[in-house]
């Protein structure tokens, strides 16, 4: 039978892009609670290493999302450049067609001019369809917007977990300080009682 940690680890390995962030953060919180309740130094060190590993996974996932976001931005710029080149090519082709029509009307070699026109039309047909390019640009825009939302959500969740972690550490530090003060007070009282007993015997 698998333990809960092994099941969570296997799910994280199988998980796809982005959807495992919540699980990683939950695993981090669970590891932190185990670390706080660890009974031995060895167990505490093991839980500490798990927390570091989970944090690294979260940072890697966030970095991956940022890389995909940057890659899509570059791809968007590339499509915009292609779109401009297509527009320029279409404009140039229209000018050429207009010129060819004038040459056809003026020239005596109508057949030769028609062949040039057909060849130029074939060149235009090889260019990507402008409507399809616009659809691709629109799809990329939506994907970029979705990735931006995912990035913001991940950053908000990580910031919340950092604040909660800081509060827990502060509470532990205050509790430790209180225990140390109580221990010092007990030692002082015992020392005073020992001194009073010695004086009574004299």
Question: What's this, in brief?
Answer:
The protein is an all-alpha fold and 202 residues long.
Write up what this structure looks like:
The protein is an all-alpha fold and 202 residues long. The protein contains five helices and no strands. Helix 3 runs antiparallel to helix 4 (110-125). This is THOC7 protein. One of its GO terms (cellular component) is THO complex part of transcription export complex.
Task: Output the number of helix runs.
Answer: 5
Q: Order of helices and strands, N to C?
A: HHHHH
Tell me, what's the shape?
rod-shaped
Strand content is under 5%
Got a strand count? 0
Biggest sheet descriptor: none
Mean pLDDT: 79
Low-confidence stretches: none
Cα end-to-end separation: 69 Å
What would you report as the Rg, rounded to the nearest angstrom? Answer: 36 Å
Helix content: over 70%
Query: Structural class per helix/strand content?
Result: mainly alpha
Number of domains: 2
Pfam families: THOC7
Keywords: Coiled coil, Nucleus
Family: Belongs to the THOC7 family.
Protein name: THOC7 protein
């Amino acid at each position: 039978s698998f333990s809960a940690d092994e099941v969570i680890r296997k799910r994280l390995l199988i998980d796809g892009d982005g959807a495992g962030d919540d699980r990683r953060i939950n695993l981090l919180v669970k590891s932190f609670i185990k670390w706080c309740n660890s009974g031995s130094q060895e167990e505490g060190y093991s839980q500490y290493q798990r927390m570091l590993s989970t944090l690294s996974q979260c940072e890697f996932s966030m970095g991956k999302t940022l890389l995909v976001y940057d890659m899509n931005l570059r791809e968007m710029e590339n499509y915009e450049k292609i779109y401009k080149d297509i527009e320029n090519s279409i404009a140039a082709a229209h000018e050429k067609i207009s010129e060819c029509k004038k040459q056809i009307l003026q020239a005596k070699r109508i057949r030769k001019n028609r062949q040039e026109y057909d060849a130029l039309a074939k060149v235009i047909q090889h260019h990507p369809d402008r409507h399809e390019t616009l659809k691709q640009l629109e799809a990329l825009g939506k994907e970029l917007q979705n990735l931006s939302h995912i990035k913001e959500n991940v950053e908000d969740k990580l910031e919340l977990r950092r604040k909660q972690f800081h509060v827990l550490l502060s509470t532990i530090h205050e509790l430790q300080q209180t225990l140390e003060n109580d221990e010092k007070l007990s030692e002082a009282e015992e020392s005073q009682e020992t001194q009073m007993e010695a004086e009574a015997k004299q």
